[in-house]
Amino acid sequence: MIVRTLQEAEQSERRVVSDGWESTRLLLKNDNMGFSFHITTIYEKAELNLHYQNHLESVYCMSGEGEVETVADGKVYPIQPGTIYILDKNDKHILRAKSEMKMACVFNPPLHGKEVHNAEGAYELEAEEVSDSK
């Protein structure tokens, strides 16, 4: 069994901070579950151009408000607490935060832990692993 707290993980190398967001990775590839699980904060007024070419992702909004736009068709979907969006086709998308948003995110394949977005808005498949397996 693996037991972690968000508060402990936020004080470790499992917390990754980048432009417009930060993410605490509670479950990673080295946990051998086949997916990773993160609590991600999207900062107020952030606009992120994302295209997870190597991963499928599900995102559940716990707090805050914003929107997600699918680039292929220009459709805009509101995000508020209780909303889930699922990038089941490696969808290129734009995430906009009207207020700070707290999101619960699942990635398949799992992240290693240190990933940040590349120039295309994707995570690379190979990245440095977080060594703390607590």
Automatic annotation (TrEMBL):
Q: Does the keyword Lyase apply?
A: yes
Q: In which pathway does it act?
A: Amine and polyamine biosynthesis; ectoine biosynthesis; L-ectoine from L-aspartate 4-semialdehyde: step 3/3
Q: Which UniProt keywords apply?
A: Lyase
Listed under catalytic activity are: (2S)-4-acetamido-2-aminobutanoate = L-ectoine + H2O
The Swiss-Prot or TrEMBL record annotates one GO molecular function as: ectoine synthase activity
Q: Name one GO biological process term.
A: ectoine biosynthetic process
Q: Does the keyword Hydrolase apply?
A: no
What would be one Pfam family of this protein?
Answer: Ectoine_synth
EC class, as a word, reads lyase
User: Its Enzyme Commission number?
Assistant: 4.2.1.108
Q: Which Gene3D superfamilies match?
A: Jelly Rolls
Summarizing the function annotation, the protein's role is: Catalyzes the circularization of gamma-N-acetyl-alpha,gamma-diaminobutyric acid (ADABA) to ectoine (1,4,5,6-tetrahydro-2-methyl-4-pyrimidine carboxylic acid), which is an excellent osmoprotectant.
Record family assignment: Belongs to the ectoine synthase family.
Q: Name it.
A: L-ectoine synthase
- Name of encoding gene: ectC
